[in-house]
Amino acid sequence: xSAAVAEAAKKPQRLGQKVRAAWVRDLNNSLxxxxxxxxxxLEKVPTRDLNRLRQSLNGSLYMVKNSLCRIAFxxxxxxxxxxxxxxTCAVSPIEGDVAAAAKLLxxxxxxxxxxxxxxGMLTGQAMDAKELKSLAALPSRQVLLSQLAGILQSPLRSxxxxxxxxxxxxxxxxxxVAKKKT
Length: 182
Known about the structure:
The protein is of the alpha+beta class. It has helices at 3-10, 15-32, 47-56, 66-76, 98-111, 129-136, 141-181, and strands at 36-42, 62-63, 89-94, 115-122, 125-128. It folds into two domains: 3-138, 2-Layer Sandwich (Alpha-Beta Plaits), CATH 3.30.70; 140-182. Strands 2-3-1-4-5 form a five-stranded antiparallel beta sheet, sandwiched between helices. Helix 5 (98-111) crosses helix 6 (129-136).
């Protein structure tokens, strides 16, 4: 904690300052659990649709004042993300499969004109909207893992086929000999 922040903490705060400090603290708590976050701009998006999106994201879509969000980003060390805070913004901390959450947010942006991806942070790397859209184009984690398993399994399958060929040939030859003698 810097000296200026410690000095400010000693002074009595007005109610509004206490509320804003609590919002920043809550946002910091939400962001402390994750390394990935997406910032979106909201204009004229129905609340009903935003609530459905929140449910799809497991409740992780927060509308916060930009000034308070800037403070939380600075405290987290995400100063690069501050430039994406323009207009009415919401922050979505992402736990788990980042590509799946990015797909959901990109699809929601396609369906709602006022919902615009601004940027994000992926394991310490700032991303712009274009990079988030390319991330959403990736297959899900499970699909990538199954593709990797198939790639790893292919040489083993070929090796087993080649190793069984002499035995198969011997079995066919013995079977032909047995048929010839009967």
